Amino acid sequence: MHSINIRTPEGVIFSLNLAGPVVRMLALLVDMAAIITVTSVIRSVLGLAFIINPDFGTALFLILYFAVTVGYGIFFEWLWNGQTLGKRLLRLRVADENGHRLLFSQIAVRNLLRFVDSLPVFYLVGGIATLLNRRAQRLGDLAAGTVVVRQPRVGMPDVEQIGETKYNSFSDYPFLEARLRSLVSPKEASLALSALLRRNELDDNSRLTVFQELAGRFKQIVIFPPEITDDISDEQFVRNAVCSLYRLNTQQS
Prior knowledge:
Elements: E1 3-7, E2 13-17, H1 21-45, H2 47-52, H3 54-79, H4 85-89, E3 92-96, H5 104-112, H6 114-117, H7 124-132, H8 139-144, E4 146-150, H9 174-183, H10 186-197, H11 204-221, H12 226-229, H13 234-245
Antiparallel strand pairs: 1-2, 3-4
């Protein structure tokens, strides 16, 4: 299995396992089945338009077909943070090749260029590109600066490994915890956990910078009430977030 190592500006290195052409093709088949199902429903709904005015019905169907085939990938990859139905079932995810947050513009570019990758038939151009590229990128990925990675199953870490047992104030807000879990990617959760496990290996300045960056990222995703965040350090904020992400139970000491 091929992988790439990404080094953050704070000096934290993490590895991403790249998805190969075969598993990506399986995910594509699932997505194609979903698209065919939706377009079949649309064609059935437009049945009356075909009867009344065949030309208008055909034109309307072609417009909606294009919107579905292109919009499907854009919509779900943005909604599910780099995943479509097929990718979710096969545990794949689109990610920025430099480890940054995936942007909507990247998602749009890689999906708009699918028609090029699909030439001349059944993604022949895209398939050849993934075989020749060391990061298994099709042309759309190269243009967008993205890679498709495998999403590992995340084990449950031992709470004792990430510091002395303290009460996680985030657990008082289960709705916000659930929102945090739904919006934080496995890559981001793994990076935060790795930073906590390796925090003693960092010098003081690097340690402060790493947890400031991580806490800032989580604060952008979900806003917890200031009464539980104003009096804790960035490192404790990240620790609380990790406990919430991995559903770790902590008790009042």
